[in-house]
Amino acid sequence: MLNTILIGAPIDEGQRRPGCVMGPAAYRVAGLVHAIREAGHRVEDWGDMALPELQDVSCPNPAVHSLAEILGWTEVLSAKVDDALSQGGLPIVLGGDHALALGSVAGAASYAARVDRPLFLLWLDAHSDFHTPLSTQSGNLHGTPVAYIAGREGFEAFPPFPAPIPASRICLYGIRSVDAAEHAALLEHDIEIKDMRVLDERGIVAPLREFLDMVRDAGGMLHVSLDVDFLDPSIAPAVGTTVPGGTTFREAHLVMELLHESSLVTSLDLVELNPFLDERGRTAKLMVDLVASLMGRKVFDRPTRSF
Fold this sequence. Notes:
This protein is α/β, with parallel strands linked by helices and 307 residues long. Helices cover 35% and strands 15% of the residues. The chain is globular and about 55 Å long.
């Protein structure tokens, strides 16, 4: 039995499309607590985090916006995730846009370093999010977490990332939209890239099992960051960054089932849910169902839906 700890991260500042601030509430309304308890696990809800007093900061790149707010979220989420892990819990961070991973993964990395265990990152996303504050053209900092986590330069305004994760311990799984600057930077790093071309050719299972075997062999901790746009927009419309060709309903559930069977996941992000763009809550309910699969719900336990 796991002790899961819900941490609300109502972050909208990492991008420019309003709505992600409602994400944590949508997960709760869609039955996340019930789904986890039904799978046999304990749930603590620590509520939604709030911004601390903002710093006076600036960035050489004039496109970057909301830097002070993102730094504030990074600070509070890092401390909260570290605290949850220190109490023996499995933190589930409810977003909010993907800028929250700047803090959630930092908290996991801080804890992992303290207990002397290697931390691995599974990035389930349409995007690589490998920009830095200096390279981003949109100025949206939700496109920068993996670069921060991997220790790239350009994050001078941020606290140094505790124990940057080596590229070989990062897996970008399901990506299919990468900017030119990100692509060039990725070529210089040995990150495990399992894009949709790889998954089309090799299937969902083998590439994921290979990465999970690495985590297991190293005795590692595993942080999973699940973006709504990992899913195909035909089944998950509630995201402001839709990219066609994402994972199907069954593929996504299979990923979650494999993660459950591995028993390796130690922390989880649920990000980029924008309820304002949803259809009768279908995306929120699907994300909750995926968490249920991660927690052990079997394929024959699927509830019947009206859509």
